[in-house]
Amino acid sequence: MKPYAWGLALWLGLGGCLLAVPLSYTPTLGNQTTTLQQHWRDPARNREIPVKVYYPKRAGTWPVIIFSHGLGGSREDYGYLGQQWASQGYVVVHLQHQGSDNQVGRGNPRVYQALQQAAFDPRNGYDRALDVSFVLDRLKKFTLPNQARLDLKNVGAAGHSFGAFTALAVAGQRLLDPQGNIIGLPDPRVRAIIPMSAPVPTRPDQQAIAYRQLQVPALHMTGTQDDSFDTPARDRRIPYDRTVASNQFLITFKDGNHGTFFGLPPAQPQDARFQELIRLSSTAFWDSYLKADRQAQTWLTGGGLAKLLGTTATLEQK
Predict the structure, then answer these.
(1) Is 54 within 8 Å of 101 (Cβ atoms)?
(2) Stretch 105-134: mean pLDDT, rounded?
(3) Do the Cβ atoms of 25 and 65 come closer than 8 Å?
(4) Domain regions of the chain by residue span
(5) Alpha carbons 307 and 318: distance in angstroms, whole number
(6) In degrees rounded to 5, what are phi and psi of residue 10?
(7) CB 159 within 8 Å of CB 131
(8) Residues 6+ apart with CB under 8 A from 264
(9) What pLDDT score was predicted for residue 109?
(10) Which residue in 3, 31, 43, 81 has the most C-beta neighbors within 10 A?
């Protein structure tokens, strides 16, 4: 019996003496999914975009999450998130962004310098945002082998590091075009985002206006030791602080660093617990804003998430 039916039956069985039977929500862990890989080409830019799609084993109509990897990554990375979200009823599309993926600096003894150059090249940030919009267009004519349907009216975007920038960009963050002009490339189809370890613009004029247009719900994540060559840990909260829209959340993991979010074999003992909390909190966030689950939103904002995090992380919201 469905939960709401059980509540109604109990209410009737007690002669209608209860006004309501509260229903609980608890996010769960999972990894039972199926995957496929394809290469899609954007003819307008003559650009190939490899994708890896995680999807539920069961048929249904599922919201869509676009995931963007960090600098030097690929569609194969962050599989723990693709598995988690797909197991909870989402189709998750991991993109690979040419120009800032694992091909940068390959075979070059100065690979670190090559990666830095790729990170600060405006063309790469610009192309990443366009990659997301192209993939959303491509998904209109995409079918899954098990005949599951894509709910393209409920789309989220997530990413880590350079991927967090990508998620923010398609949600409205101002960015630089290849000529160095400050522009916007928002995609109105993106209804919620999860930026993890977001970098912050280095140009003061860009930083001052970068987040003014952000309106979608966002679950920002970082750690107290989340340093990288482009952004110190103390600045990771800037996108959250400068976004004036409501439905904003910030999770800061105590002693979490930039590698915490990769999902590779834990580099430090607490990473396994951090990644479990990332999976659970992000699932509740997607359920709240892509599935309009009121119980999930109550859990998210009413103390459930804060209780789950305990002393492992701090939660801020507005």
Answers:
(1) no
(2) 92
(3) no
(4) 27-317
(5) 17
(6) -65, -40
(7) no
(8) none
(9) 81
(10) 81
Q: Which residues contact 44 (CB under 8 A, 6 or more apart)?
A: 134
| Residue pLDDT, tens place only, 265-301 | 767 889 999 999 999 999 999 999 999 999 999 999 9
Instruction: Give me 116's structure tokens.
Output: 């830095």
Mean pLDDT (the chain, rounded)? 91
Task: Give the per-residue pLDDT at 14.
Answer: 34
DSSP string, 113-157: HHHHHHHT-HHHHHHHHHHHHHHHHHGGG---TT--EEEEEEEEE
Angle at 276 between CA 299 and CA 53, to 5 degrees: 95
pTM beyond 0.85: yes
The conformation of residue 266, written as its DSSP 8-state character, comes to P
Q: Which structure tokens are listed for 192?
A: 């919620």
Torsion 304-157-236-246 (CA) sign: negative
> What stretch of H or E contains 313?
strand 313-317
